[in-house]
Amino acid sequence: MTLAATAAGHGFLSPTGVEIAFLLVGIATLGAAVVTVTTRQLVHAALWLVVTLGGVAVEYLLLTAEFIAWVQVLIYVGSVVVLLLFGLMLTKAPIGRSPDADSGNRWAALIVAVAAAGALVWVVVDAFRATWIDLDGAVQGSTQSSGRTLFQYWVLPFEALSVLLLAALVGAIVLSRRAGEGKAPVAGLRNVFRTSPAPAPREDQR
Amino acid sequence: MHLAYPAVLAVLLFCTGLYGVLARRNAILVLMSVELMLNAVNLNLVAFDVWLRDTLHAGQALTLFTIAIAAAEIGIGLAIVLLVYRNRGSSDIDRLRDLAERPDGTDATDHGAQPQPDTQAEAPA
Amino acid sequence: MTLTTSAVLVPLLPFLGAVAGLLLGRSAPGFVRPLAVLPTLAAAALAVSVAVEQGGGPATDVATRLTPTGSIPIDLALHIDGFAALIAVLVGVVASCVQIYSTGYLRDDPRYPSYAALVSLFTSAMLLVVYTGDLMVLLVGWEVMGICSYFLVGHYWETKAARAASLKAFLVTKLGDVPFLFGIFALAADAGTFRITGILGHVTSGGLDHPTLIALLLLAGAAGKSAQFPLHTWLPDAMAGPTPVSALIHAATMVAAGVYVVARLLPVFAASAAALVVLAVMAAITMVGSGLAALAQDDIKRVLAYSTVGQLGYMMGALAVGDRGAAVFHLLSHGVFKALLFLGAGVIIHAAGTNSLAAMSRMSGLSRRIPDAYWTVTVALLALAAIPPFAGFFSKEAVLGAAEHAASGGAHGVPGAAGWTVLVSGLLTALLTAAYAARLWLLAFRGKGAEVPDHGRQPVVMNAMLWVLFVPTVALGLTGPYLPQWFDGRSLNPTLTTSVLGTGAALAGGLVAYAAWRHTSALAARAPLGAVAAAPDAAPGLAEELAIESHAPAYGGVAGAPDPADPGRLLLGPLHRHAAVGFHLDAVYSALFVRPVRAAATLVRFLDREVVDTYVRGAGAAPRWLGAAVRRAQTGNVQTYLGALLAGSLVLAVAAVLVATGTGA
């Protein structure tokens, strides 16, 4: 295999420029991710998530998967994070430092995470110690090649995915819709005639 | 490029997300951590796709699907969180303890079970 | 009616009477008395006709096999020889007398229907034991008798003494019945049949493998039933039952069943010299010990009970010297005069209002109040003391003659030691018997002091039965010359030597007791004592129940009384204290059986409460603690669950990797 043949020419102590760039961006990405999961300001966490996702997009570029990278920027940075920010707002998340952002089992979580990281890193490094990616050939993830494969070989899953997205859309609407919204005018009228702003019974909300 | 770089980065991102899922209290922050884990998987998929030079580009196609599913997931997840928040007045995961056994109504039921006034205030609006 | 039909009807009639009595007892009280008396009378008449037809000829054997029952067949067999026919007559006559007597004695008793039915059932079982030719069927009757005895001893179950006595009687006889059962099985296994004729044929052909073991096992059962040392302790206590029951069951018939069975199976015993010696020693200890104990008893019925034990000892002694004719002769005469004594004692207790001899010795005029009982009991006591010419003299001389015959080496296969043991102890017991008989008579009928209170007239039926039994008491001895043809053919006539010795001993005993009484009776006036249960209009049974109940509180015990005017106290000296309580055998039993069983029960209770239950509670507590611990883990916090899940899967993954790469364990 070509991989085995090219493997001999590489070494850990002679990193290429791509590798150095990957490493630096990776460190930045990881740092942003760590800040995301540790910061006490909830909105900052969302913004640091933008940095992380952007870093991952850059890594995709470095791996010559440019279409994925742009999709990543578009969907994640563009929509998902915005959605999350809206979620934070709608749930009235406090602006500024909130001291109880982490739950009580933080240390247990840390232990589990570190142990998992150790185990996985050990396994991964042990497995791919002498494996190199050949980035010198044709670009793997250009928009052209990605589009061709996607619409040549993956059409059916693609269409199924569209149905899934539709289902998710409908589901999200149904879930976030106020229960009993169809009867909302009646409920409103009822509440108007009430002398005191008594909370509506839960049965009405269902 | 050495395959270990993206693989190790993916592992570390995944574990960071893992920590976030386990340690964060706010449900939206937990969702963010889930996004981190998904991204780590995506990174792996892309890296291995490039390494294997797959003619079908299964890794990249799956990455695209994952991104789409992640977007759907975040939508549904946020809807659920909003619903919970509306019913319970809080989106703190560790206070949603209705599944715990309550022998005599002790600490497990402190906040989660009682209806919050602000949801009621919103309701008739 | 053929002999077989009559013989089958003899046990069957009282049984049917018992069943009918139990069924009709509540609904038709008017039928109870006829149902109690008539079947028994008919059975007695049939038993007489069977005896007449049998006529001392060869034994009649009839057998039918209902169904195959296993390796060794069980037959419904009749074996009627002279012994069986005559004992059946005795059982029928005494049972009839007792049933008739009971109609007067327990006339107001609310439990009379069940009482009469149980007496009928007992009579049926005893007749079955007498007539049967199969050991298994015999065992059935044997156990039915035991349970009837249990119920009837406990007839006055309101009194604590009766409850305790009935349990004791049942348990002690069962203590003997278990070896008896083993003995029957061993015997049948050796002989290959349960039929008595088959077994005896097997024995005479010398085919018994373990004669000593089998004989000793059977002896245990006989000793339990016939109240021989060391299983005799239940009989004196069984006097807490009604007097007619004591007369029928605990004097005349059931206690004789052990003697009868040994007599039936005598060839088995004779096959083992050791068994005969054991039998002789047992009989000797029983005779002498019971004679001493009888001298110290205060309850008139207990005196008679110990005397029964002693007379049964005579029968066992006769069997020990290999003469079952003498044994059964004594059984017959003793059954008659002891039944008479007990029935007379019932009259005395009713008339005196007490069962205590000490109290009777302080009241005068008892003999004038009850002349019928006075004369019949006097004669019966003379018979008991073996004074000629009454029945007891002839039968006892037959026993002593057989013992002398064996002691002189005349009996084939009987060790001389057994003969000497029986002879010496028999003569000694003759002296003791006369002494306690004289003591009883003097204390009961020659009391000095206040006039006996009036407790009403005695029922006619009771006095009539005394006179019915009086006839054979006087005359049975005269039949001695005709009896050998019914038995084994050996002469039962008294020999000169033993007659002189025995009568001399009896006279000496009586005179010594009289002298002691003359000496002590003066003291009686100075030591007032006694409690009288006066119930003039009630049934005699009620007076007896009250007397039994009040004896222990009034005199400090069921057996003895602190009476300085008692001639027995003077005669026995320091022995009196021990004799009154039956030589502490009850204490020995208590130490040997009761206390270990109690201790074992306590131990079992402790083990159950503290050890077994600890495991049970532990088995319950461990899951509870585990549940509490697991419940603590169920916080409801999803993140905790997820963390634990991930940590677990991580450990599994690492383990899988280690196993897959072969670097780990």
TrEMBL record, chain A:
Entry's Gene Ontology cellular component terms: plasma membrane
Superkingdom classification of source: Bacteria
Membrane disposition: Multi-pass membrane protein
Enzyme class: translocase
Enzyme Commission code: 7.1.1.-
Compartment(s): Cell membrane
Catalysis performed (reactions): a quinone + NADH + 5 H(+)(in) = a quinol + NAD(+) + 4 H(+)(out)
Pfam families listed in its UniProt record: Oxidored_q3
Keywords (A to Z) from UniProt: Cell membrane, Membrane, NAD, Quinone, Transmembrane, Transmembrane helix
Major place of residence: membrane
The keyword Transferase appears for this protein: no
GO molecular function: NADH dehydrogenase (ubiquinone) activity; quinone binding
Segments traversing the membrane: 20-38, 45-63, 69-95, 107-125, 151-175
Primary role: NDH-1 shuttles electrons from NADH, via FMN and iron-sulfur (Fe-S) centers, to quinones in the respiratory chain. Couples the redox reaction to proton translocation (for every two electrons transferred, four hydrogen ions are translocated across the cytoplasmic membrane), and thus conserves the redox energy in a proton gradient.
Protein family membership: Belongs to the complex I subunit 6 family.
Annotated protein name in UniProt: NADH-quinone oxidoreductase subunit J
Species assigned in the record: Streptomyces chattanoogensis
TrEMBL record, chain B:
The keyword Cell membrane appears for this protein: yes
Membrane topology: Multi-pass membrane protein
Chief location of this protein within or outside the cell: membrane
Alphabetized GO MF terms: NADH dehydrogenase (quinone) (non-electrogenic) activity; quinone binding
Enzyme nomenclature, EC number: 7.1.1.-
Biased composition (Basic and acidic residues): 97-110
One BP term from GO: ATP synthesis coupled electron transport
Catalytic activity: a quinone + NADH + 5 H(+)(in) = a quinol + NAD(+) + 4 H(+)(out)
One GO CC annotation: NADH dehydrogenase complex
Gene3D superfamilies reported in the protein's UniProt record: 1.10.287.3510
InterPro entries from the UniProt entry: NADH_UbQ_OxRdtase_chain4L/K (IPR001133), NUOK/Mnh_C1-like (IPR039428)
Annotated segments matching region Disordered: 97-125
TM helices/strands, residue ranges: 61-85
Subcellular location: Cell membrane; Membrane
Keywords: Cell membrane, Membrane, NAD, Quinone, Translocase, Transmembrane, Transmembrane helix, Transport
Assembly description: NDH-1 is composed of 14 different subunits. Subunits NuoA, H, J, K, L, M, N constitute the membrane sector of the complex.
Entry function: NDH-1 shuttles electrons from NADH, via FMN and iron-sulfur (Fe-S) centers, to quinones in the respiratory chain. The immediate electron acceptor for the enzyme in this species is believed to be a menaquinone. Couples the redox reaction to proton translocation (for every two electrons transferred, four hydrogen ions are translocated across the cytoplasmic membrane), and thus conserves the redox energy in a proton gradient.
Family note: Belongs to the complex I subunit 4L family.
Record HAMAP family: NDH1_NuoK
Protein name per Swiss-Prot or TrEMBL: NADH-quinone oxidoreductase subunit K
Organism lineage: Bacteria, Bacillati, Actinomycetota, Actinomycetes, Kitasatosporales
TrEMBL record, chain C:
GO annotation (BP), single: electron transport coupled proton transport
Annotated transmembrane regions: 6-24, 31-52, 83-102, 114-131, 137-157, 178-200, 212-231, 243-263, 269-296, 303-321, 327-352, 373-394, 417-443, 464-483, 495-517, 641-660
Any single Gene Ontology cellular-component annotation: membrane
Main location: membrane
Entry keyword Transmembrane helix: yes
Name of the protein: NADH dehydrogenase
An example Gene Ontology molecular-function term: NADH dehydrogenase activity
Organism: Streptomyces chattanoogensis
Keyword Nuclease among UniProt keywords: no
Domain NADH-Ubiquinone oxidoreductase (complex I) chain 5 N-terminal: 68-115
Protein localization: Endomembrane system; Membrane
